[in-house]
Write a structure and sequence with these properties.
The protein has 328 residues and is an alpha/beta fold. The protein folds into two domains: 165 residues, Vaccinia Virus protein VP39 (Rossmann fold, 3-Layer(aba) Sandwich); 73 residues, no CATH class. The chain has a nine-stranded mixed beta sheet, with helices on both faces. Strands 1-2-3 form a three-stranded antiparallel beta sheet, with no helix packed on it. α5 links the parallel β6 and β7. The C terminus is likely disordered. The structure holds S-adenosylmethionine (SAM). The site of S-adenosylmethionine (SAM) has 21 residues, from α5 and β7.
């Protein structure tokens, strides 16, 4: 992997080639900028950025969502949100954009891929630790200033990330240039078709401004309270289920069977500074405007997968979205 990385790394500022320095960092051969290597990760971003809450959550819940001998939740999720199969990824060089603690890179490397994971937050350190024995390298980098040469990767996927940037459309549109001709882009974004989050949007006017520590402490009380209230109400005869649904609408918390997972996913919903929701029509237009083709809707909305033309040639822009879209 380090040989692959050395050949595709470019300075995110001037796009010059990079030379590895003693200690594992990199120096740009063009502008001379240095990129340090600390706690197992090369750093290509300012450590002060908007993704602090993610650094906090992935340091705290470093393995909760990682597959192991007893569970395969991330593998199932990867199939439903990226639509990538073991046959497609085996032997491929893949970029995981916003890798978090590395749950999906764990699946892809288990299936035989070589994966470069980038994340804006300190989560990159956690991914590097979790996948130390895999064909994997983690970099702290920003999707808007990626440190790679064009046409470096066979596959790029980004699951649950780009809607947490200040401009989701631009974040999607920067990615195809890093795909080799014939490469695959797969993204999963929050759905604008769900309506349950309306009340959470009200609470989100406050929650991203709280310190990650205080918000987490509040959710450690609120999540079990509303989860158990909902479950208690749901067993009442006749009115139970509608009442439980009403409480969930009013106070939305994650309902995963694993209590740690519930707090983690609820924190992941309420803490981020940026959060946008999207439709298939939008994402298809963005993919098409970048010349991607063979667009597919994958199982869990909003999940879209497309191919860069094998020749690298851009197709004529279609005027309308070419598929009939199903609103879930
Ligand atoms: C909800 S987490 C998802 C992590 C992982 N994909 C998963 O599903 O477990 C979103 C991740 O996107 C990262 N992120 C947000 N903005 C980013 C950016 N501009 N560049 C790279 N990563 C970013 C965050 O640091 C965070 O780890």
């Amino acid at each position: 992997m380090s040989a692959d990385l050395a050949s595709i790394l470019r300075c995110p500022t001037c796009h010059g080639g990079m030379a590895e320095e003693a200690g594992g960092g990199f120096k740009c051969l063009g502008c001379g900028r240095s990129f340090p290597f600390t706690r197992g990760v090369s750093r290509f971003v300012d450590p002060e950025n908007y993704a602090d809450s993610f650094g906090f959550q992935w340091q705290k819940y470093s393995r909760t969502q990682l597959d192991d001998a007893t569970k395969r939740d991330s593998e199932e999720d990867f199939l439903k949100k990226a639509g990538l199969t073991p046959e497609e990824v085996r032997g491929k060089l893949i970029l995981d954009v916003g890798c978090g603690m590395g749950r999906y890179a764990e699946v892809a490397t288990r299936w035989g891929a070589r994966v470069v994971g980038i994340d804006l937050s300190a989560a990159a350190e956690v991914a590097a630790r979790n996948l130390a024995d895999r064909d994997f390298v983690a970099l702290q980098a920003d999707v808007f200033a990626l440190p790679f040469a064009p046409e470096s990767f066979d596959i790029i996927y980004s699951i649950g990330v780009l809607h947490h940037t200040p401009d989701c459309e631009q974040a999607v549109k920067v990615l195809p240039q890093y795909l080799k001709p014939g490469g695959i882009l797969a993204v999963w974004l929050y759905s604008a078709y769900n309506k349950w989050y309306r009340f959470s949007d009200i609470y989100r006017k406050v929650t991203p401004r709280m310190s990650p520590r205080s918000l987490h402490a509040a959710l450690r009380v609120a999540v079990p309270t509303f989860y158990n209230l909902g479950r208690g109400l749901s067993v009442l005869p006749l009115v139970g289920r509608p009442l439980a649904g009403f409480v969930h609408h009013l106070f939305p918390v994650n309902r995963n069977p694993n209590p740690q997972w519930r707090v983690l996913d609820t924190f992941d919903w309420y803490a981020p500074k940026y959060q946008s929701k999207h439709t298939y029509e939008q994402v298809f237009r963005w993919f098409e405007s970048c010349g991607l083709e063979d667009l597919r809707v994958i199982e869990t909305p909003i999940a879209v997968k497309g191919h860069k033309p094998a020749t690298g040639a851009r197709r004529q822009q279609p005027e309308t979205v070419s598929m009939e879209l199903r609103t879930p």
